[in-house]
Amino acid sequence: MVELLARGAPSDGELVRAAQAGEVGCLGLLLARHRAGMYAVALAMLGHVADAEDAVQEAAITALRRIGDVRDPHAFGPWMRMIVRNTCRAQLRKTSAVPMAELSGTAAMDRTDGPPDPAEVLERHALRDWVWTALEELTPGLRLVTMLRYFTDVTAYEDIAALCAIPVGTVRSRLSQARLKLTESLLSSADRVHGDATARTALHRGLAEEAMASAQRGAFVPAVSEQWMPQAEVTWPTGKLTALGYFNGAFERDLSDGVRQKVVDVVASRDVVIWEAALLSPPENPLHCPPGIVWVHFLEGGRVSKLRLFHQRRH
Fold it and tell me: What is d(CA 101, CA 315) in angstroms, rounded to the nearest whole number?
């Protein structure tokens, strides 16, 4: 980035190419350069200052996740305004779906037929560590709803509320606060040294897959006991509270019913680790159980202090 700036004001195309190569500061410059135009579009469509700000912040986060998909680097401005428009349309329809999902096939600048998985995009770029460093600066409550909304399949406000045991209005409020703080943090921290989020996620993915493999052998509790605090508490989808040992009987019942769990994705911050697992029903009874389960681990000193389980709904 220093070399670009030394040659004078870099073009959008130069900044986009640099951002796609991992120069996080260049993406910060792009967002700052186009913020006024983004806000103008949002305000014209929504007519309310606070809603327009929310739309701009959500669009900025989407840009962070999709910068690798920009096909024409010189068309970054139109690309950003398209994202803002789709975000505003989603707000006007008051749907619970993530606005990013609407971007499928709406612009020739996108390389894919559908929205890429955020974690996959960030995995391919140095931006991933930048984003996760900014996420770590959020308060625990703001960070959890943000991780669920943008990095898991638990994207509906109602589901986030159920998993976090908070009202839907609180989810909306926390997401609004998180978007504002995250955008500010990203723009102010672009040139810092960022932690290795990839290594942390890989570590926890390995632990999750090892735990699930142990569960199929009837040894889940021994496999994870060292990673848990002795007094750790589990909240089940029904609201039932138990200790870790309850998993012995729970997995035994699943195995006898022919139910298996398969790790689909893992999202990890310093103090929250989320497993998404598919629930595989027996072939003779394909509707035996919900399609998936989400494990939200809360860590203290690197060990699980509590766990919340949430059944994903069948669509």
Answer: 16
> CA angle, 106 as apex, 21 and 134 as ends, to 5°?
40
- Cα–Cα separations (whole angstroms), residue 106 to 66, 68, 73, 79, 100: 14, 16, 17, 10, 11
- What stretch of H or E contains 250? helix 246-257
Which domains, and CATH codes, for the chain?
2-98+112-188 (no CATH), 198-312 (3.10.450.50)
What predicted TM-score, i.e. pTM, was given to this entire model? 0.65
In sequence order, which residues have a C-beta less than 8 Å from that of residue 287 and are 6 or more positions away?
281, 314
How far is Cα 207 from Cα 213, in angstroms, rounded to an integer? 10
| Spatial distance between the Cα atoms of 55 and 46, rounded to a whole number of angstroms | 9
- State pLDDT tens for residues 142-177: 999 988 988 888 988 899 999 999 999 999 899 888
Average pLDDT of every residue of the chain: 80
Burial of residue 122 (CB within 10 Å: 0-12, 13-18, 19+) is buried
DSSP single-letter state for residue 15:
H
Question: How many C-beta atoms surround the C-beta of residue 123 within 10 A?
Answer: 14
CB 69 within 8 A of CB 107: no
Q: Do residues 46 and 52 lie in contact, with contact meaning Cβ atoms separated by under 8 Å? A: yes
Residue-level pLDDT at 246: 95
Tens digit of each residue's pLDDT (9 = 90 or more) over 248-276 = 999 999 999 999 999 999 999 889 999 99
- Cβ burial, residue 201 (10 Å; 0-12/13-18/19+): buried
Taking only the tens place, the pLDDT of each residue in 57-77 is 888 878 877 888 888 989 999
